């Protein structure tokens, strides 16, 4: 984790005198801090992030996306009488009026208003929270339905191109730079046995059977802020991967993360399964939130989206494990392997519950 630099603090239009900066949240990609300022007895807090430019190779383009999308959301939220300071992320500009600062070491930083009296959750604590998050992600798609998607930059090329992910995985197995492949033969076989799954949605997209939409691409429960007082989902966060994509993948990633009965890195796999109760709650909320905008094919493919995203994510964790853990931040030895195993346990569980998943989707379409 990087340190906050004085130089950085001084660049942004923060109000008051800097008193504290602490690491914040459980993100795997950027370094996130909550910074506190005091002015005339009043406390102001902000989120300050050092962007991961190993992963996001074009931070200027990424910030153009974030600026475009957050100002669009602000306008839409104002129009419907909401509170844009709480219902969308709001960038804090630098003193030069830019939305990021490149420091003297070449690190890129950005800042947001901190949303007070709201939290994110890594695990579903109350079932309503998960339903709320579904409505929020559905809504997010709805609010951005007429956003000019072609103006968005692809912040990570082929982010959810599962076929390319599989290709990268195979290369990692072959190269085996850390000599770890021998110990994970079962997991490698698991991926290879399901090759057709990697192709399903990519093929449909190529054939024009699934429309390209503005998507979030990282729709985990913990990317939604829930208001402490009302229990309502108020704000979608982490907009780094907002780009054109498939709605079913946004749906699928939420199920992967939030409908699991265990944490993403739970080492005890007996605690990990895909809860059909949570799957149903999310399906209901998401379909409602999208307000009739999903096509027949998209609705048909919701369960495939769930399975594909889970499979892809497990494969990405395994690739990173094989390559020496350079992508996802790890906090213990074998962390990426534990994460991979939870994902594959979920895929297996979904395979067993396949019929039920399809019945649930049919109930809400
Ligand atoms: O970890 C990150 O948020 C990833 N984001 C996301 O794709 C998913 O793999 C997740 C798993 O918890 C990026 O790679 C940008």
UniProtKB/TrEMBL annotation:
Residues 23-258 form the Aminoglycoside phosphotransferase domain. Coiled coil: none annotated. This is Mucin desulfatase.
């Amino acid at each position: 984790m990087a340190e906050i630099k004085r130089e950085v603090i001084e660049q942004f239009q923060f109000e008051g005198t800097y008193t504290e900066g602490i690491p914040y949240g459980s993100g795997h990609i950027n370094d996130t801090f909550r910074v506190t300022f005091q002015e005339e007895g009043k406390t102001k807090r902000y989120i300050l992030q050092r962007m991961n430019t190993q992963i996001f190779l074009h931070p200027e383009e990424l910030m153009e996306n974030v600026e475009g999308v957050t100002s669009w959301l602000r306008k839409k939220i104002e129009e419907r009488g909401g509170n844009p300071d709480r219902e969308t992320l709001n960038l804090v500009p630098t003193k030069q009026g830019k939305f990021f600062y490149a420091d003297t070491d070449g690190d890129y930083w950005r800042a947001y208003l901190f949303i007070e009296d709201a939290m994110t959750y890594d695990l579903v604590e109350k079932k309503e929270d998960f339903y709320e998050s579904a409505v929020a992600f559905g809504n997010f798609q709805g609010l951005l339905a007429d956003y000019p998607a072609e103006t968005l930059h692809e912040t990570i090329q082929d982010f959810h191109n599962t076929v390319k992910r599989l290709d990268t995985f195979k290369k990692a197995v072959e190269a085996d730079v850390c000599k770890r492949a021998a110990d994970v033969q079962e997991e490698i076989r698991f991926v290879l046995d399901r090759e057709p799954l990697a192709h399903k949605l990519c093929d449909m997209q190529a054939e024009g059977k699934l429309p390209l939409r503005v998507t979030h691409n990282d729709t985990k429960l913990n990317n939604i802020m829930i208001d402490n007082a009302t229990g309502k989902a108020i704000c979608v966060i982490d907009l780094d991967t907002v780009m054109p994509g498939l709605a079913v993948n946004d749906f699928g990633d939420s199920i992967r993360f939030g409908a699991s009965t265990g944490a993403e890195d739970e080492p005890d796999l007996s605690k990990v399964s895909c809860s059909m109760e949570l799957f149903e709650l999310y399906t209901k909320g998401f379909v409602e939130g999208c307000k009739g905008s999903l096509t027949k094919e998209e609705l048909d493919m919701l369960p495939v989206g769930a399975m594909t995203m889970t499979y892809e994510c497990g494969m990405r964790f395994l690739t990173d494990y094989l390559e020496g853990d350079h992508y996802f931040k790890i906090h213990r030895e074998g962390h990426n392997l534990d994460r991979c195993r939870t994902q594959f346990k979920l895929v297996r569980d979904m395979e067993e519950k396949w019929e039920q998943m399809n019945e649930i989707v049919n109930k809400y379409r």
